[in-house]
């Protein structure tokens, strides 16, 4: 990669990032066309409602200037018929000489086949390896969804330094700062759905909305796990329902409560699980069937532990404030039975520390799913 390659690939990735909350369930993609003289001739970014892929938009903008030029793209061009024709066909028709991509597409219908098709036609293909990690992280939820059929599940929590999320008597105010909470809003904006438990709703009367003010293709789907349908009709989350609130319950819930919630515009679904609880793995499967590729969990200690214990959480985003509560009565981030031995601890990998405010930080890490599965129960 020379300086020009670096410049235009940086631009392609920045364009792709502009598709946040606008591309799902497809990946965010940015593309830049540089003509044979080395000048930018066209660019594009993908949005789901815009239909056309980033490469096609860039080629259309460049017109004849694309011939003999270079395409910089944040993801391997697709080579199969979907909602649109394959991007590789557009690249070939445009007469481009070279394609530089940040990363290959792990989609089972692509997975290197797009690159191979271009190479077979005589087009030079280069991978910008130094941008690979950034490009992979940008679309990690989509890649996970394409591989598993399930949303990437992110467990978010805000704690004191000693891991407490609530005090026993008074929980007025916030644990973290305004800066950290703005960071969380951006995370919400990047997700398709958010899940909490009835205990959190009853305690906080939360809204669970995306308050960034940024555009999104579809509203953030708010999901409440409520085994007995205790959700108050006058709660803020119910009163603000607008085809964006789903309550997951069990057959033990009163039929009259279900009818009342549905009349208030809430979608109610039965997911019977063990011990009279909502079947959380089945909920995650259902969300995947709705083409929701990312789920943020913002809940209390019980649901947090259930997500970890059942192995449905894929990564954590744990915010820490410079405070200590102490005491055995203050709630920890994850409650429940916990692991009974150190050897049975749920393990994480790929730990990253993000400083998000004065003396505040967030720990981002991925769960070792095989460890969680081996230690269930």
Describe the structure.
Helix content is 30%, strand content 23%. Helix 3 links the parallel strand 3 and strand 4. The chain is elongated, with a radius of gyration of 23 Å. The C terminus is likely disordered.
Q: Which terms would index this structure?
A:
nine-stranded mixed sheet; 13 helices; elongated
Structural class: alpha/beta
Radius of gyration: 23 Å
Number of helices: 13
Uncertain runs are 371-377
Elements, N to C (H/E): HEEHEHEHEHHEEHEHEHEHEHEHEEEEH
- Name the shape in a single word: elongated
- Measured distance between first and last alpha carbons: 50 Å
Helix fraction by DSSP (H/I, runs of at least 4): 25-40%
Task: Quote the average pLDDT.
Answer: 95
Number of strands: 16
Strand content: 15-25%
Give a brief rundown of this model:
This protein has helices at residues 3-17, 54-62, 87-94, 113-120, 132-138, 140-148, 178-190, 198-204, 236-239, 255-263, 280-289, 301-309, 369-374, and strands at 30-34, 40-45, 70-73, 98-101, 124-127, 152-160, 164-166, 193-197, 221-225, 245-249, 267-270, 294-298, 315-321, 331-332, 348-357, 360-367. With 377 residues, the protein is of the alpha/beta class. A nine-stranded mixed β-sheet has the order 11-10-9-8-12-6-13-16-15, with helices on both faces. The protein has a five-stranded mixed β-sheet with strand order 2-1-3-4-5, with helices on both faces. It has a two-stranded antiparallel ribbon with strand order 7-14.
